[in-house]
Amino acid sequence: MQMKQKSRKTRIQRKTSETNILLNLNVDGGGKSCIRSGIPFLDHMLTLFSKHGLFDITLKATGDLDVDIHHTNEDIGIVFGQAFAKALADKRGIQRYGFCSLPMDEALVRVSLDLSGRPSLAITRAKGVRFANPRDYSFHDASEFMKAFSQHAGINMHIEILAGQDSHHVIEAMFKAVSRAMDMATRIDPRVRGIPSTKGSL
Asked: Is the entire prediction scored with pTM above 0.90?
């Protein structure tokens, strides 16, 4: 007899002198979202993350955007990572590994990740890939979000920018590829017994 799957929902709040963030996450959702970060481009990216990863996400954030977007962007990445870590708990029964190669017009991004509990992030560009960074939300901002996310979720993640000229397309392909790789890695595999590691823990 198959055991009923434990609910993988969580609620995280992070309040500092710089930001106030509330996030609700359902790993086993259908891609519904309500995102209010105060950063329009990031709202767009996180809505895509929800849709393509089939995660239900509600996010409300306020921050010192009169200074710049750095604190709010990074702290949302932290909260996203904490939410996934908490929702997945001991990661019993999950596939653990995820990958996705995703095209977005002229851009192509490949993501490979492991929910290992040992966080690290490597972002590389293929030789000759060059694109301008817009002021509203740059590739650097996206990279800082992914750094905070991977660190606090305990993910070993490699993001390869294989092609691209438009930074919007590159960043969008990055968020979509990460979300689809996360969907794969967090899925429950009925063949997996216990923790997917010979160590017995992740």
From this structure: yes
